[in-house]
Amino acid sequence: MRWLRRIPLSLKFAALTLAYMAAAAALAMVLREWLQSWAAGGIAVVLLAPLLAYHVRRAFAPMNSLFRSLGSTVASYRDGDFSFGLSWDGKDELAELVAAHNELGDALREQRLGLIQRELLLDTMVQNTPVAMLLLEPDGRIVFGNLAARKLLGEGRRLEGHGFADLLAHAPASLQEAVARGGDGLFAVGTEEDEELYHLARRHFRLNGRRHELLLLRQLTTELRRQEVQTWKKVIRVISHELNNSLAPIASLAHSGAELLRRGQTERLPEALATIEDRARHLEGFIRGYARFAKLPSPRTEPMHWPRFIAQLRNQVEFSLDGEDIDGHARFDGAQMEQALLNLLKNAHESGTAPEEVKLALRRLHDGWRIDVLDRGSGMNEAVLANALLPFYSTKRNGTGLGLALAREIAEAHGGRIALLNREGGGLCVSMVLPD
């Protein structure tokens, strides 16, 4: 019967129909002569109907088998099994259907293999990351915990299926407090001699229609210690350089002064002593600046009237107000903000800008205030812009690298931010934003 599979379906239907009609006509003629009745045609049709049904069933049996196979493979695809394929010897419409079905199976199989490989890669990365990861169901049940989480919270045991609240009851008190506060935060574990600092991040999302929570616990101690060592090295280099610049002339002039006294040449002593005093005062100011940066207290905010505050600044440094005077109030620590803006305005004067070109612009934002200090100096290149706000970074020969860093520290302590950008036409704009 394989030759039947090579005949198109339309021809099969036509051939069977014609054969049935011809057989029925022939049988009707025979019966009409025998029965002498016009009912012979109907009798012929009834007699040939079982034979037609038999041949139709036999002719379409392979096609019915194919349809059952198609249904079985579709059910397998639904269950995630893509290992099945179909074959059909014919060259009819069903052959095109089988070919399309097999192509679909191949595509699904390749996608499934790619997905499995990506899942394995992702699982390997998640399991071996140093960040502890916990995935919680809405009822607080742990559905996933990587190796770092097991080590931190479960002494190496699997965490899946345990309640996070039960696990948290045996965790350090600092972690319990960080979780109870909600949101992201920092907490420390251990004693002062062996303390580890962690960052807790919490994110919510929907998985399979249900709300889940992802907890990330990242250890910061090693990174912070590395940064701390680098910072201390830089501080020591800057302080050593500044101390040597002041102490070497002082030691040399002190020796010279002693020689002048021994020789009785006292007329040059005042000059030597004045230089020693100048270097000593410079060194005193340098140390005081570092101490002020290291011991910056928390700001004591209070309502400040802008016209009065700007008038106080003008009594200490020269600048012009860019735009119209703004009559309003803002909340900040007056002493700290005055120190920050004095540093920025003095930097503007030191850029080589004419005094009348040093400007301060004040603008009201929808949720705070923006203060811009403008100059017409040479501006900054990309490298300097990227590092200028870092403590102890300075391009000036005698600079301490604390002016901009202190201004940034004060702005961030008030919940604000500070940014540097070059102005069109030359110069620099230092922009400080303070929230209400």
UniProtKB/TrEMBL annotation:
**Record keywords, A-Z:** ATP-binding, Kinase, Membrane, Nucleotide-binding, Phosphoprotein, Transferase, Transmembrane, Transmembrane helix, Two-component regulatory system
Q: EC number(s) per UniProt?
A: 2.7.13.3
Top-level taxonomic group: Bacteria
Q: Which residues form the signal peptide?
A: none
Name the SUPFAM superfamilies on file. ATPase domain of HSP90 chaperone/DNA topoisomerase II/histidine kinase, Homodimeric domain of signal transducing histidine kinase, PYP-like sensor domain (PAS domain)
Q: Which Gene Ontology BP terms does the record give?
A: osmosensory signaling via phosphorelay pathway
Question: Keyword Aminoacyl-tRNA synthetase on this protein?
Answer: no
Instruction: Provide the PAS domain boundaries.
Output: 118-154
The record's catalysed reaction(s) read: ATP + protein L-histidine = ADP + protein N-phospho-L-histidine
Gene3D superfamilies assigned to the protein according to its UniProt record, in alphabetical order: 1.10.287.130, Histidine kinase-like ATPase, C-terminal domain (3.30.565.10), PAS domain (3.30.450.20)
State the SMART domains in the record.
HATPase_c (SM00387)
Membrane topology label: Multi-pass membrane protein
Q: Which residues form the HAMP domain?
A: 68-113
Q: GO molecular function of the protein, one example?
A: ATP binding
CC per GO annotation: membrane
The primary site where this protein sits is membrane
Q: Where in the cell is it found?
A: Membrane
Q: Which residues cross the membrane?
A: 38-56
Q: What is this protein called?
A: histidine kinase
| Originating species | Luteimonas gilva
**Species lineage, top-down?**
Bacteria, Pseudomonadati, Pseudomonadota, Gammaproteobacteria, Lysobacterales
